[in-house]
């Protein structure tokens, strides 16, 4: 496994992070708790010490599942959690208010069965609460020992001016990025430089389309979010383009004797230096495939091939 220290912190984390959305056991088809627990154990066995979740994943189910999976091993891992997506009376909305931060944090700590969260991240900005109030509240929680550090998620160029005055306060930020989705690439590099934070990519396998398990005939059930057209990676021309990327990766997977998932993950690790790649997993086999991305590099020719074939994806919606 490869490790880095998150900017402005002493958190040493694996560059491959196990994403916790599937642990919410909602919207990803057949998800079995036993396999999720085994996946966490496999991740630890293979050197992953970084686990990302959010209070909104399964409305707390992901946090509870992670707590159950880690058990007494909680002290040897870094947990990243998120707040800011609030669900009440069937309505989903963003809330960064100090009152909600405190309430959300209290709930997450209880569900995780811990008295601190290593990295507490703003899931989405609510465009109402001043960032000064958010930072002030997070600093208070940090001083009380409830969180160690805080980070950002889903920020873009329009947010940078507001956040610039807090350079050095945040340690990381997340955004969607993969060979199937490079639309946020400019924002990622700008935020990495201008805010001095560590980039973390979600959707790193294009919701699974880059694993090579799917084709134009793949069908998802109603209990799988990928059946909806908003998940563009599996529909229409976007799916066809993604399958071309998969075909380009196949000889590389054979060449390096790695999984297709590992090639897709390795592209991010090489193309965005000092980044962390988030990958959700439903079973130990997916962890095994993902962790094959560590400990080697794509050569310049292969990196160029993948960069070029995925570049046209940036303009596709």
Write out key terms for the chains shown.
single chain, 317 residues, alpha/beta, eight-stranded parallel beta barrel, two-stranded antiparallel ribbon, 10 helices, 12 strands
Overview of the structural elements:
With 317 residues, the protein is an alpha/beta fold. Helix content is 38%, strand content 17%. The chain has helices at 33-45, 61-70, 98-112, 131-143, 157-163, 185-194, 236-256, 260-271, 284-291, 300-311, and strands at residues 3-5, 12-14, 16-19, 50-52, 78-83, 85-88, 91-94, 117-122, 147-153, 172-176, 198-202, 276-280. Strand 3, helix 1 (33-45) and strand 4 (50-52) form a beta-alpha-beta unit. Helix 1 (33-45) packs parallel to helix 9.
> In sequence order, what are the helices and strands, one letter per element?
EEEHEHEEEHEHEHEHEHHEHH
Residue share in helix = 25-40%
Order of strands side by side in the largest beta sheet? Answer: 3-4-5-8-9-10-11-12
Please identify the structural class as seen in this structure.
alpha/beta
Radius of gyration over all CA atoms, rounded: 19 Å
For the sheet with most strands, the description reads:
8 strands, parallel, barrel
- Number of helical regions: 10
> What does the overall shape look like?
globular
Strand content: 15-25%
Give the low-pLDDT segments.
none
How many runs of DSSP E, i.e. beta strands?
12
